[in-house]
Specification:
Blueprint (H helix, E strand, L loop, with lengths): L1 H6 E10 L6 E3 L2 E4 L5 E8 L1 E6 L2 E6 L2 E5 L5 E5 L6 E15 L2 E5 L11 E3 L4 H16 L4 H42 L7 H7 L4 H12 L3 H19 L4 H7 L5 H12 L3 H6 L1
Antiparallel strand pairs: 1-9, 2-3, 3-8, 4-7, 4-9, 5-6, 5-8, 7-11, 9-10
InterPro entries: Cupin_2, Homeodomain-like_sf, HTH_AraC, HTH_AraC-typ_CS, RmlC-like_jellyroll, RmlC_Cupin_sf, Tscrpt_reg_AraC-type_HTH
GO molecular function: DNA-binding transcription factor activity; sequence-specific DNA binding
Keywords: DNA-binding, Transcription, Transcription regulation
């Protein structure tokens, strides 16, 4: 993503704030048969949807949409909470350095390195910067074009930073869920926090923090819960001695198993079986 912005050279064509004269309007629907310019569309209030070449995407507060040129576009309002937005119309080329010389290249596809519509959880700073860009563009004071270009570039980096953090969070959550699945399938084995953390290439302390965030309890608490759940199933569903049940669910000391079972379940393993 960041490699793209090393070469990104934009040219702003227009900046608007929630003005419908750019669209053919039909009730609560904005319609363009064919988009003429690249646009970055940011919703700061309201709800609706964007349909691009027949593919529909929801729009809500904090949504950032990129609209390519020469595409069939429909944007719909939710009548009770209409969309309020900023839109930046722009073009760009990619700069290639050759020693001390540069040349601009036309990209094969004019598309920023994120999805058609991206919901941003924290967009308050983005709204302030969009408003500043709109004012700079509208007032057109000396040097406004260069200032607007810099503000636009910073906006894109802010969006990219948040998407990058979300990708890291998604990756971390997948790693923890992989560990949860591993525990569910290997509860009878020796499971230690350090070895589980190494499986997902995390430090033990950070692994514990992430595990608590995504699962709601510590790794040790979750392992104990899984083992006790399996033990309760075996106590009710088989005639195996308590000591054997303890070993088969991962407790190597039957006395320790009985103490943990009694503490967490409220009765002894034998009393649970006989209840």
């Amino acid at each position: 993503m960041y490699d793209f912005f090393d070469r990104f050279y934009p040219h702003i064509l227009n900046v608007v704030q929630g003005k419908l004269e750019h669209w053919e309007t039909q009730g609560t629907q904005f319609y363009r048969k064919s988009t003429g310019r690249l646009s970055l569309f940011y919703v700061y209030e309201g709800q609706g949807s964007m349909e691009l070449d027949g593919e529909k995407h929801p729009l809500s507060e904090g949504s950032v949409a990129q609209i390519p040129a020469r595409r069939r576009l429909v944007i719909r309002n939710a009548p009770e909470i209409p969309l309020r937005y900023f839109m930046i119309e722009y073009d760009f080329k990619l700069v290639k350095w050759q020693g001390e010389l540069t040349r601009c290249e036309e990209p094969p596809e004019k598309w920023l390195p994120f999805g058609p519509v991206e919901p941003l959880a924290d967009h308050r700073g983005l709204r302030s910067e969009m408003l500043l860009l709109y004012r700079v563009w509208s007032e057109k004071k000396n040097g406004y074009s260069g200032q607007a270009k810099l503000l636009f570039f910073n906006l894109l980096l802010r969006i990219s930073d948040q998407l990058h953090e979300r990708q890291k969070d998604d990756s971390a959550e997948r790693s923890i869920m992989d560990c949860v699945n591993y525990i569910n399938n290997h509860y009878q084995e020796s499971l230690e926090r350090g070895s589980l953390a190494r499986k997902v290439s995390l430090s033990s302390s950070y692994f514990s923090v992430l595990f608590k965030r995504y699962v709601g309890c510590s790794p040790v608490q979750y392992i104990t819960k899984v083992r006790l759940d399996k033990a309760m199933q075996m106590l009710r569903g088989s005639n195996k001695p308590v000591a054997v049940v303890a070993l088969e669910v991962g407790f190597h000391d039957p006395l320790y198993f009985s103490r943990v079972f009694t503490r967490e379940i409220g009765v002894t393993p034998r009393a649970y079986r006989e209840a």
